[in-house]
Amino acid sequence: MFSQHGPSLRELAVQALSSVERGYDLLAPKFDHTPFRTPDSVLGAVEEELKTLGPFGHGLDLCCGTGAGMDVLRTVCRGSVTGVDFSAGMLAVGREQVRSDGSPRVAWVRADARALPFGPAFDLVVSFGAFGHFLPRELPGLFAQAHSVLRPGGRFVFPIGAPPRPDSAWYWALLGFDAAMRVRNAVRRPPFVMYYRTFRFGDVRRELTRAGFTVEHRALPGFGRRPDGSPRCRLIVATRGSGTPRA
């Protein structure tokens, strides 16, 4: 499915009927051949924006998967780059694919993003395409964790796309996917949390502010604007102040 190197429909079904962790362990060897991987166009646009904000010392890729964002961090960080994910399978693929020689140093850590095993050691935290795996009620804790691992003045940066319009096919496709996922999780355990319509710009900005960040956003060039003039893709730049990190 997707390409000759991608997963089959049967493999995707087995993944969807597993837990999030087990599902991604199974999908990991073929993950980069699916549309679920963050597109290079998005990675490149974020990298260019980070260059205007950096350079940075130590970077963390939150929910790094197979490491698509690690090469972005390696470009803008001088000290070290760390990828954290709770799927051992995704981390194993990342270790094979991302160069770890030279500078900056590269490390891979298996951990839950909701309970990070780090102190305030990073100058930059990024995340790409992972937030659909967290329920809205989990955002305060997730953002508090990102805040807690940043040094004063550190940035938490990630792209967020504009929701599709109700008159588009994508709107109804994503609505249908989320509805099917809710039915699946209502009748089967463990749940597989993956929702495309729960990570909303207004909610994200509010919860980041509550976590102690100063939040700004900028349009990512190259993705254009919607008919109402709003950008199709934004970059959220949340800066940690000098106060005590949130737990």
TrEMBL record:
GO terms for molecular function: methyltransferase activity. It holds the Pfam family Methyltransf_25. The keyword Transferase applies. Its EC number is 2.1.1.-. Keywords: Methyltransferase, Transferase. Residues 60-154 form the Methyltransferase domain. One of its GO terms (biological process) is methylation. This is Class I SAM-dependent methyltransferase.
